[in-house]
Amino acid sequence: MKQGIILKGNICYAPENDRLVVRENAYVVCEGKNCRGVYEQIPQAYRTLDVIDCQGGLILPGMIDLHIHAPQFTFSGTGMDYELLDWLNRVAFPEEERYADSGYARQAYGIFAERMKKSATSRAVIFATIHTDASLILMDCMEESGLVSYVGKVNMDRDGSPALTEESAAASAAETRRFIEECIRRGYQKTRPILTPRFVPCCTSELMKMLGEIRREYDLPVQSHLSENPGEVELVRKLEPQAAFYGDAYDRYGLFGREGKTVMAHCVYSVPEEIERMKQNGIWVAHCPSSNMNLTSGIAPVRHYLEQGIRVGLGSDIGGGSSESMFKGVTEAIQNSKLYWRYVDSQAKWLTFAEAFYLATKGGGSFFGKVGSFEDGYAFDAIVLDDSAETYARELSVQDRVEKAFYRELDKTGIAMKFVEGERVL
Amino acid sequence: MKQGIILKGNICYAPENDRLVVRENAYVVCEGKNCRGVYEQIPQAYRTLDVIDCQGGLILPGMIDLHIHAPQFTFSGTGMDYELLDWLNRVAFPEEERYADSGYARQAYGIFAERMKKSATSRAVIFATIHTDASLILMDCMEESGLVSYVGKVNMDRDGSPALTEESAAASAAETRRFIEECIRRGYQKTRPILTPRFVPCCTSELMKMLGEIRREYDLPVQSHLSENPGEVELVRKLEPQAAFYGDAYDRYGLFGREGKTVMAHCVYSVPEEIERMKQNGIWVAHCPSSNMNLTSGIAPVRHYLEQGIRVGLGSDIGGGSSESMFKGVTEAIQNSKLYWRYVDSQAKWLTFAEAFYLATKGGGSFFGKVGSFEDGYAFDAIVLDDSAETYARELSVQDRVEKAFYRELDKTGIAMKFVEGERVL
């Protein structure tokens, strides 16, 4: 007998960029871990599966958060009066130092994972801190949350605060190996390690080289930051004069796509050569509009990336971003693209709602494989929203209800159900 | 015996721009309709008043929404893929036509007023539609909500949709008189009429002249839109070639401050002569960042206005804005000011949290008089937030909790208590 579940309700997903499919009172079928498509009537082959009637609720793919710093959740939404480099030194680094204490990490990451569980997000790519033990605690917490995630122990062997700078490149690499080996030993089902050089200013070439070797050895994905802020880009130019551009400082050591998948957060100030390399190397861009506003960084040229065929997803970037809400991220991506069109490049048409919805689902989902859509064969990640408290005098189409749910951030007041890889987590 | 109430909790308010006062476990005293200040111990004179212990909750002044379109609440958060003038014709005007039907108005405005009641907003300056009967229904609903508000029957005698263009200037003026007289007759306690020429493109000079006369006759305040979008500014230049600038088209008819108070929404593209006139005439600017992003308008030069001594408050501008949340408005004002600094004028230092908090409280509150602060003699408008569900591993200062409440929009998940002019409405 088939294992699975069928959800009945108002279904919306984006099978391709700028195209929303809306199916009213339809059925989405989950068999095992995978989606088997959306139907007006339950197909014969799936008649034995249980059906959950979502009572007219909205059924959407789970949101994909391509960039979030778990240790920064504690101060998210505070300390917003600084630019990036000041903010790191005054706000972010002092907090991250606390994760040397595993007790603190257990408490903080427990709360973080619980909030992620309750959010609209089904998958996330996560920074921890330099601390291996705390990073493993975060892995444990995320595994328990039911979300699928990549978690990275952070590497920093220069230019952090004293307590947040690892002893040497060799020590950082050794701890990274310990982290990876322990992840393998623990046999997580949903939580995978990812290499996480913090960013070029915090990683020597020696460390980058070692991480490149570890990447090849374990065939791991990579996450980092790229061209977020003019001051940071300038700093990288000075620190790594041999690199042709910021991203080249990763690429020289095999940490910038090509054979291994890589997600780079921000890419606000990527020069044409860098963009070309991102394209060649198959980089994913984690666009983080909230954070880019809060830290006065600017607006990433998302339209240009899409036109170039570069893969783009969204990141909440807590704590530069203030909220784990990806609904908020979707509307902020649209709003930012409108200001970009107005102030930076009138050739760069702003993002439609359908496009931003795609970025938050199938766009970012591609980093995990066939994820972020209700097409046949995609992983079954779904959220159900009960928007019945949002009553209006006029009747709303399902598409209007979906748009309203995002603009009015109904994810904040609760997700009615959530499934990840076919398993119910809420 | 004195009438009043005392709230005990963590109190935060902004008595001046860029200065937050935070008082932990303190008492704020309400006597009659007015605040009598904040104290560590209850003064002898107020010992007979009842004390509500807010259990460590956050006590803030009620938020002031200087610009909101009540009839557009129905579609807020939808139809966001257009620029201003297209959006008016395709989204806003068709919905506003429905308010010719008083039954529809009763239903829609009932829901609107209920949502405003549950929001963090204690006072609002509101657009209705051209329909006098529906506008009076909105007055009834707002009066019942407990909020203090100005409500305007809208004037439009050209260039709306056919169903939304009044027969003539004289007919529009006559309906305005009927609206005002009926407001007087009904004797509202908290709800006052405000003259509301929609904006120059929708009002002939003949109508403006008549409205100027009505304004003087009844000594009414005025609300309208100003220099929101380049296309609109250009349209006004063509329609009113005799006006020196957009705002002059109001000023020629006595609808732009001076003796009567006037609030103008947006002011994104005000030219220097217009800004000078705004200053001379004592105009309030309703800064509406959400709407200005959604309708691709741009970013208003708020820093410049503050430096010029122009009075600025915030507006949600539903339905150009998607949410009635003024907490969201505060953070969007900050985020916008950061992008303005980055892309438009690096001399215009971005807004701090304390500054934006001030705009949403005492800044906008000044349109209503002594409103928006907990200083002695100010109207007692207060909201109490229970942020106890927002737990973090680290201890947060009260100021951090307040900043978090805004950035994480805790107003969306409920206001624990709300007082307006000393009366409890939630």
Compile the SSE list and pairings:
The structure is a homodimer of 426-residue chains.
Chain A lengths: L3 E13 L2 E13 L2 E6 L10 E12 L1 E7 L14 H14 L4 H17 L2 E7 L4 H14 L2 E5 L1 E2 L13 H18 L4 E3 L2 E2 L7 H14 L3 E5 L3 H10 L8 H4 L10 E5 L5 H10 L2 E4 L1 H6 L7 H6 L3 E4 L11 H18 L9 H13 L16 E4 L12 H10 L9 E4 L2 E2 L2
Parallel strand pairs in A: 1-4, 5-6, 6-7, 7-9, 8-10, 11-12, 12-13, 13-14
Antiparallel strand pairs in A: 1-2, 2-3, 4-15, 15-16, 16-17
Helix pairs in contact in A: 2-3, 3-4, 4-5, 11-12
Notes on the structure:
The structure is a homodimer of 426-residue chains. In chain A, helix 2 packs parallel to helix 3 (132-145), helix 3 packs parallel to helix 4 (169-186) and helix 11 crosses helix 12. Chain A folds into two domains: 4-62 and 372-424, Urease, subunit C, domain 1, CATH 2.30.40.10; 63-365, TIM Barrel, CATH 3.20.20.140. The first copy, chain A, starts with a strand and ends with a strand. In chain A, the strands form four sheets. A seven-stranded mixed beta sheet of chain A has the order 3-2-1-4-15-16-17. In chain A, strands 5-6-7-9 form a four-stranded parallel beta sheet. Chain A is an alpha/beta fold. In chain A, strand 6 (121-127), helix 3 (132-145) and strand 7 (148-152) form a beta-alpha-beta unit. The first copy, chain A, has 13 helices and 17 strands. In chain A, 36% of the residues lie in helices and 23% in strands. Chains A and B meet through helix 2, helix 9, helix 11 and helix 13 of A and helix 2, helix 9, helix 11 and helix 13 of B.
